[in-house]
Fold this protein.
Amino acid sequence: MNTISVVIPVYNEEKGIKGTLEILQNLRRQYPDIIEIIVVNDGSVDRSGEILSTETGIKLLTNGYNIGYGSSLKRGIKAASGDWIFIADADGTYPVERLPDFFSFMADYDMIVGVRTTAVNHIPVLRRPAKKFLNWFAGWIVNFPIPDLNSGMRLFRRRECLEFWGLYPERFSFTSTITLAFIRSHYLVKYVPIDYHKRLGSSSLSPWNFFTFLGLVFRIAFYFNPLRFLLPFVLLLISTGVIKGVYDLAYSNAIGNFSILLVTIGCFVLLLALLSDLLFRQRSK
């Protein structure tokens, strides 16, 4: 069986890290030749570092200051020796004990994602509309249904992960980026329903992170599927210009400069989308 490196980023998780590591240590003892545990302490200022210093059987990486979720994951993945990477949060929200349930899918898929869709679901109510919109928009971009774009519990091949190294953001959201990257590059992704528990401790996320996620999805969408992303803007510009031109002809017997400008910009954006799509296909070969 392939080896698995568990990578857990930690930032001020003194209430949850002990329980998370107890579960992972039990798994490591069950699969001693398969699982390694890597914990990245991302400049925690609570008792997380003290708790981690007493743990044995883990590879502990310590950031001198907070460098962000994405950067911490990337540091852990670089240090990993496994063929596969398993990531989860340290706050007790994800059922990390279900890692063995993912094993049966490793032969047929490149990434297995835990989907927070079961009855036990403690995603804050105010975040759910934004989450649903991001899932829908990302799925539309890659033409593939995405039930959970940024689930933090997933198992994926390390080799394929490294192909998109330069795309992963320093902070949020590594998970959204790798999801779109794998799907758009035709790697096989399996979604498995999981529980999502109430977190232990306070969250570092804020409502403004929605706009960060949205901007990230736009950037990745333009990178991986520029034609699909830009085509609605092209159609809007050209159709508006044509309608305005018809109106101008009907009432003044001449096409106005604004109509010509809209159609010209629409054609320019279409050309940009076609060239970008061609470049992506060349990169994918």
In short: Residues 226-284 form one domain. The chain has a mean pLDDT of 87. DSSP finds ten helices and seven strands in the chain.
